[in-house]
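A note on notation is needed here, since sequence and fold are reported together in a single record. The reader may check this reading against the record printed directly beneath this paragraph.
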Amino acid sequence: MVEQARAGQIRGVKLRQAVLDATMAQVEAVGIDEVRIAEVAAAAGVHETSIYRRWKTLPRLLADALVSRTEAEVPIPDTGSVRTDLVWFTTALARFVATPTGSAMVRGVVLHGGDPEVADVRQEYWRRRLAVAEDIVRRGQARGEVDTDADPALVVLSLGGLIHIHATHLGRDLTPAEIDKAVRMIVDGIAARPE
């Protein structure tokens, strides 16, 4: 009875945050493949029906939780220097990818497959995250640091792809020195040219 009263009191933003926090706690405790809605509901203090009503399926819930965590863990810096911003961004992304949650996100676990809505969520997330990260390069262009012909998407995808390859195929993290060197090569390549 107390559980029902408590569950009835959690709504809207609070319900979403409680469920997403409980989902990520389960991902970290048991691994992404072992997360179950019943355990998430119990940990969040809500009924399973509340989760199914809002997210419909476990993959959708996991997608939302992973997306929310990524946004929190990999903020987009604005230091006034494209080089510094790219180093900070790439370092935060590499650090996140080294966590179990980040690893699951990069590997696309549960964020692919036959569910079209999950695929839409994943694509929308990447479009939004890339657009925000691309602002680092656009701000550099506005300040005159970066050539106006530089492609912001290509810059972000190059750095993200470097991290992805190291994490998923080489099985190792990038060192700070490697991140600095990669950013330096890219920044040198996109630097504004004298007229």
